[in-house]
């Protein structure tokens, strides 16, 4: 588990007519400024199958990450970690492959139930069969929550701290938001060359 998170990477994947576009954006956590980004594209070899997203997204994401010159302290993944029906979502798979700390940050609930938020807190425990699998996190007042779960080499408490520290003026943590924008820009670039 990282004591410090100076450089935080966001990972996302976009799709275009049989091509998967992986993007990674590394930000300085102190001011959320961009340090480096990389992209990679692959022929999409695995169909979209709910709960098996990692088999589709790891090849382009891993390839983009391997191009990095900066060594991130932690990776924020647009997807699930432990809060997954099999307890091993995209963030967990990628963390195991990288042997680095990863955090799953999802926009929708895949498994488990949110404990009643009686105090209006920003962080509420997410349980599946009485086992804590993640947390519902409200990053911005008046916006939909995110679902944060441990990917690899991370405690849930530290994961939520890092997600909140990396959230700027938008609901989505800035490293993931930037990776999403970069992946979509690369997708548009590829599309214009077709």
Question: Can I get a quick summary?
Answer:
The chain is of the alpha+beta class and 194 residues long. 27% of the residues lie in helices and 32% in strands. It contains 4 helices and 9 strands; from the N terminus they run βββαβαβββββαα.
Description of the molecule:
Helix content is 27%, strand content 32%. The protein has 194 residues and is α+β, with helices and mostly antiparallel strands. A 9-stranded mixed beta sheet has the order 3-2-1-4-5-9-8-7-6, sandwiched between helices.
Identify the notable features of this structure and list them briefly.
9-stranded mixed beta sheet, alpha+beta, globular
Uncertain segments are none
Give the helix/strand class: alpha+beta
Placed side by side, the strands forming the largest sheet appear as: 3-2-1-4-5-9-8-7-6
Distance between the termini: 44 Å
What share of the residues lie within helices? 25-40%
Walk me through the topology:
Blueprint: E1 7-16, E2 19-28, E3 33-43, H1 53-66, E4 74-78, H2 90-98, E5 102-106, E6 113-114, E7 123-128, E8 131-137, E9 146-152, H3 156-165, H4 174-192
Parallel strand pairs: 1-4, 4-5
Antiparallel strand pairs: 1-2, 2-3, 5-9, 6-7, 7-8, 8-9
Helix pairs in contact: 1-2
């Amino acid at each position: 588990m990282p004591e410090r998170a100076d450089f935080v990477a966001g990972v996302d994947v976009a799709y275009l007519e049989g091509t998967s576009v992986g993007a990674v954006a590394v930000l300085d956590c102190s001011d959320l400024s961009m340090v480096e980004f990389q992209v990679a594209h692959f022929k999409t070899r695995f169909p979209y199958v709910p709960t098996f997203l990692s088999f589709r997204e790891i090849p382009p994401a891993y390839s983009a990450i391997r191009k990095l010159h900066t060594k991130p302290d932690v990776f924020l993944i647009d997807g699930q970690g432990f809060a997954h029906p099999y307890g091993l979502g995209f963030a967990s798979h990628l963390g195991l492959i990288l042997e680095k700390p990863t955090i799953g940050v999802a926009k929708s609930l895949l498994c488990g139930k949110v404990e009643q938020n009686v105090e209006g807190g920003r962080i509420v425990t997410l349980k599946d069969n009485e086992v804590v699998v993640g947390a519902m996190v409200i990053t911005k007042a008046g916006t939909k929550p995110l679902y944060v779960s441990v990917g690899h080499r991370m405690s849930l408490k530290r994961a939520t701290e890092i997600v909140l520290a990396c959230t700027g003026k938008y609901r989505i943590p800035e490293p993931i938001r930037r990776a999403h924008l970069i992946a979509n820009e690369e997708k548009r670039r590829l599309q214009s060359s077709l």
